[in-house]
Amino acid sequence: MVESKKLQCQQRDFELLRGLFECRVMTNTQAAALYFEGKFEAAKKRLQKLKSAGLIGERPRHAFEPSILSLTRNGLVALQSNGILKDYPSFPLPALIRRSRVSNLTIRHELEVMNVKTAFHSAIKHLPVFCIEEFSTWPLLNEFKAYRPGQSSKEVLVKPDGFINIFEKNETGEKFERTFFLELDRSTESQDVLVDRVACYHDYYKSGGYAVRRGGTREEYRQFPFRVLIVFKTAERRNNAAEAMLKCNTPILTQVCLSTIREVTEDPLGAIWFRPIDYRNAVQNSQFDIDRRKGQWGYKRQAEREAFIEKHVQKRRILAEE
Q1: Which of 20, 32, 35, 49 has a CA between 20 and 30 Å from the CA of residue 114?
Q2: What global pTM score does this model have?
């Protein structure tokens, strides 16, 4: 316990401050869901005390915009002085202060990532055999180097939007691990860039890079599986990405799960995800068959395709046994 401007910080306060340190920004609603069991009024009162104590700041906003919280210098000092940042990379205080400042260009994306994190934490509470061991949203903690197709002589740096580790406990107390990397598509990159990025994840797995990160050897890579969850703004963008992954020289079939931001924020653990191979199975022998469309140039919107996919694709739960 410490005292800051006459406020005695509790364990939950430090958990909240640590969360803000990692994600940089969050709304009152997100804070309530993550740290106050969804009790908004209780969260609002405690957050006000933390603001008054100078540990949390609030970004300038227009009327009717949500309050966006961030960590202050005093908040960073409180975390450092209590040893709460010892498990994070060591940086001087001025560097940490600069990192806590989120530009207006990226804040929407940061808050969307937090919406996904909040949805996962809220949903997992209804599944008592599962728990979220880790949901990290600081790219520096999750970044890796991998080789892109056609770029065999040069590694590229990949910075995921999130890393999720979920434990399942069976009746005998044994724990089983489910691991995911998270990508939120901004709809600003070409499909080719997106496919190359996914291919980097495949290289990270097959080369044993991820196995080494988790304490294994490169030869043991099969013992360290993971999936990549990609969240899109629209079903159209999602379906285009599935086609692009199937059309590349080495088709991406099962390591990636695709969904939309609406579905994920409503029920991330529900049957809302599908893999490129599920897309291929859904369109096989139809007018949207991948093989029939390989020679087509240009792109035009096809509302009928989106309706067809929603009706025929097999969607999955990411925590279901296969």
Answers
A1: 49
A2: 0.92
